Structure formats: structure tokens, C-alpha cells
Amino acid sequence: MKIVATIPLTPELREVVQQAAPGAEISDRACRTNDDVRALVAGGCDVMLGFRVPDDLLERAPGLKWIQLLSAGADHVSSWIGKNERIPVATASGIHATPISEYTIASMLAYAHRLHEMIRAQLHHEWHRRAGFMDTIEELRGKTLGVIGYGSIGRETARLADALGMPVLALKRNPGDRRDQGWCPAGLGDPEGKLPRKFFGPDQCQAIMAESDYLTVTLPLTPATRKFVGAKEIAAMRPGAYIVNIGRGEVIDEQAMIEALRGGKIGGAGLDVFEHEPLEASSPLWDLENVILTPHMSGANRGYMEKACELFADNLRRFTAGTGLLNVVDPLNGY
Fold first, then answer.
1. Is residue 148 domain-shared with residue 273, that is, in the same domain?
2. 103 and 76 in a common domain
């Protein structure tokens, strides 16, 4: 078996892969463009690990049998999947559960305790102890969290929120199927789907938003989820509600959200993703005091590649044993 990795592997990570596939030939180097990927796979391969997937990959590696992405989302390779459905593409869904769920809870805590306002005050050397300001600070305990997209990230966020005393609601594509079928480190998440007090289907987005004090959007970007949270859904939110988006920017109607934030119709937003990235300097989101924004980095962490190679090793063992791979993208659903 020949494995090609379009990112350089440390000796430790190479050993993890080698133990999962003894005797495999491993070729790895940094590929920053599709042309770099084409050059690396020119000699052919059975398995490819990486972020980029050129549309003409099979012409360079006709013996390719499956692809392991290093990203949780697959929207950036949707055109390739549509043309080559016989080649399984597995995502890295599950490796981001810890950092992104912690980011989400951190954003909610910062908003609830007005840390974002305190940081702004610190920059201006201002001492804020006025009564009106202090009356806006609240606890998360007892507040309802709505999770829109109950995958690995949403489930781990739910577990942390439950520990903080927050009732959890969840929306998923098939609310009757509550088990998590994807990869997830042991002890994390909600594998059996037991934490939410209530499940909602895709046609009940307004309902879950109306019942939640805090919301987190963890949806992948597909034709079905584009603008999934639109003007009607945002209008259904509670007046002081706070929404966090760590999925994809295009899942929310950004202009409708901006109008609601400007007008005080909703409490605030924690945004890590945007319709256009990098976020334009002219965007009003930069200056809204009820917005906490970050540059698409909620999944960043020092152990990223270690988790990714752990998942890759699991799938390699499954591949050599002839059992089903984890996290295979369904071409119909796009994730």
C-alpha cells in the first residue's frame, strides 16, 4: 500500500501511521497548491491524506482507493465528490470536538460576564463599575442552549453546557436517529443522544431558536444548509439571546443578523466564520459592541495533527481489515 500525505509528518506521526498499516510506503511533504498535490501523487497512491483534492486527481493517481481529509467539512471538495462517488472521502469530523466546544462555551461565558466589554474598557483605561452595566451580567446556569447541528462538536458542547447546568435542546437532520455514528475520542460528546431535553427537525429551526437563550450553529455548508438560519429564524430568537456560529458563514443570513444586532432585537453574537473571508474591513461586524469575532480559528490547537492522525490510523486499520470507514461523506447530503 502507498500512502501520500500532503502535509509533512513528524517522526512520531509517521510512526502512528506506520503501525496502523505495517509495510506501507509513506510519501509526505507540504503541498500548498493543487499543483503541489498533483506532483506528489504523480507516482500513484492507494490512500491520500490532506486538505486539497484537485478535480483531476484520478488522472494522476488512477489506483486511488480513498481519501482522508484533514478538515471536518467537505464543501471545498464537493465538485470532486460529485464526479467520483466510487472513491470514498472521509472527513476529520470529531477531531475538533474539544477545541471548538471549549471556544463556544468561552464565547458564551465572555458574553454573559461582559468580558468583551471589559477588554474594550481596558484598552481605553476605563474603570467600569456603574450599576447599569453590572445589571447586565448573568449566569449561564439555568439558561437554555439550543444546538443547531448535533454532530461531534454540538454533542461535546452539549456535554459541557450540561455540566454548567444549562438545559440543552438539539436540532438534527434526522431527530429520530440520536446516536453519533462518527469518530469521537472516548469520553467526549453525547454518543447516545441522551442529553437534549428535546429534539427538533430541520423544519423546526424557528421553534428551537424561540426556546433558546443561547444558540450554537455547528452545521456544515451544503445546498440544504445555505442560509438555513434566515431572517425568519433570527426574528424568532428571544430578545436577549446570544448566537455562536462556528460552522460556516453562509449558513446564516449575515445581513439579517447584522440588522437584528444593530437594532437590539437579539442580545449578541459570537462569530468565527463569515460569508466572505477574510472579513472585509468595511463590515459593520467589526464595530458592533455586542459581537465577539475571531478569524476562523475556533478549531486551532497544538494537538490538531495528533488527533487527525489518530483518526487516520483508525480508518487505515478499518481499510486493511475490509470494514467500513468512519466519517465517509454521503454525496447526497454533502457531509
1. yes
2. no
